[in-house]
Amino acid sequence: MPDGVTITSASVPDPASIAENRAAIEIDTTIYSLNAVLRASYKFTDQAYFFIAHREDARDRVVVTLTLNNSASSIRVLVGNFCNELLDQQVRESLAREFGDIRTLIVAQAFSEGNLLDPKRDDGNCEEDPRATLQRR
Q1: b vs e for 78-88, b when ≥16 Cβ sit within 10 Å of the residue's Cβ?
Q2: Structural domain tally of the chain?
Q3: Looking at residue 108, what is its pLDDT?
């Protein structure tokens, strides 16, 4: 398992449940954000039921308890896929934080009628050649 993720069976809240159908994953929220945990969990709600709670003794840890529903076949496969999705969601969040302003500018430029970065480029027309583009050849 990756750093920041621990799979435990002792943390499963309902001791009467069948172990093959349930797992508890302890996640370090200093590595993975709660938002990434929620998004990764949501992606698999068609395969399992999720319960997410902070640990009482460690507020920087959450325990994600998942119980298979009828459509999923293996708890091990689901836990592996969940861990991969958790990493994917954390990377997406990090990229959005790092490049979000650039993405916003690209989208704004794509839907604008003019040039947002250099409005002077919109002046004139191709017949007049205001930037003397033809003379540079």
Answers
A1: bbebbbebbbe
A2: 1
A3: 80
pLDDT at 5: 63
Domain with residue 61: its CATH number is 3.30.1360
Amino acid, single-letter form, for residue 2: P
Asked, for residue 39, whether it belongs to a domain, the answer is yes
Q: What is the spatial distance between Cα 134 and Cα 126, in angstroms, rounded to a whole number?
A: 10
Alpha-carbon distance of 12 to 22, in angstroms, equals 7
How far apart CA 14 and CA 126 sit, in angstroms, is 73
Q: Report pLDDT digits (tens) over 54-92.
A: 988 888 999 999 999 876 678 888 999 999 999 999 999
Q: How far is CA 56 from the centre of its chain?
A: 26
Q: H/E/C letters for each residue in the chain?
A: CCCCEEEECCCCCCCCCCHHHEEEEEEECCCCCHHHHHHHHHHCCCCEEEEEEECCCCCCEEEEEEEECCCCCCHHHHHHHHHHHHHHHHHHHHHHHHHHHHHHHHHHHHHCCCCCCCHHHHCCCCCCCCCCCHHHC
Residue 26 lies in a domain: yes
Q: Residue 76: which domain range?
A: 5-115
- Does residue 121 fall inside a structural domain? no
